[in-house]
Amino acid sequence: VLHEEGHLDCNEVAAEIAFHNPKIHFVWNSTLQEIKGKEEVESLVIKNVVTNESKEVKADGIFFFVGMVPQTEFVKDLVACDKKGYIKVNEKKETNVPGIYAIGDCTQTFLRQVVTSAADGAIAATASERYVKEKKQIDAILTPDSGKVAFLFYNPYDSAQIDVLTKMEEKLGETYHVIRQDITRQSLLYERLQMHNVPAAAYYENGQVERIEESL
């Protein structure tokens, strides 16, 4: 254990269970310096970080543990992290900065295993692909000469919202170029405008937002 006697990096319940396990022998203020052996582990060299003394102990094997300190120093001033340094993400692995995603053990997650990190990667890959595609579509629509454009945001799983949008589309059709946005699949603009309710509408003229209406 790297720390002084009695100090373990785990919760108190787990520590008490470990302390009362007769099969566990603790070596305090120490770190692993070397693993010795040919085809198999034969011994370990353990270094005391206080005295700098090293000693060799026999061992038949070793379990590696990656530790609990996230290596996120290089992004701590870029994306939101918690007090321990883990990156905050949502269910799509998005950080608080649009277009930046984080996955795996460096994020706030319940389980830190290879299989969960791989799943995180699949989610982030799909989400980032949709983000890039949607951003290109929005940028192509909201140009300086795009005229009047109305985005109508809705949840397709609510039939009442679809009825509201149909009426809105008929009402706005002569003045605006109307674009429906299914927020379950196209949420970039909705989130960028910091909207919270649907059905809702955002009105643009030549690429600039004029007004926003929520809860139509």
Low-confidence stretches: none
Mean residue pLDDT: 93
Task: Write down the domain tally.
Answer: 3
Quaternary state of the chains: single chain
Strand order of the largest sheet: 5-4-6-7
- Gyration radius (Cα, Å) is 27 Å
Helix content: 25-40%
Helical/strand content category: alpha+beta
State the fourth-level CATH superfamily of the largest domain.
Glutaredoxin
CATH topology of the largest domain: Glutaredoxin
Folded structure, characterized:
- It is a single chain.
- This protein is α+β, with helices and mostly antiparallel strands and 216 residues long.
- It has three domains: 12-58, 3-Layer(bba) Sandwich (FAD/NAD(P)-binding domain), CATH 3.50.50.60; 73-139, FAD/NAD(P)-binding domain; 142-214, Glutaredoxin, CATH 3.40.30.
- 25% of the residues lie in helices and 20% in strands.
- It is built from four helices and seven strands.
- A four-stranded mixed sheet has the order 5-4-6-7, covered by helices on one side.
- The model has no long low-confidence stretch (mean pLDDT 93).
Secondary structure elements and pairings:
Elements (H helix, E strand, L loop, with lengths): L11 H8 L10 E7 L6 E6 L5 E5 L55 H28 L6 E7 L4 H14 L4 E6 L5 H5 L7 E6 L2 E7 L2
Parallel strand pairs: 4-5
Antiparallel strand pairs: 1-2, 2-3, 4-6, 6-7
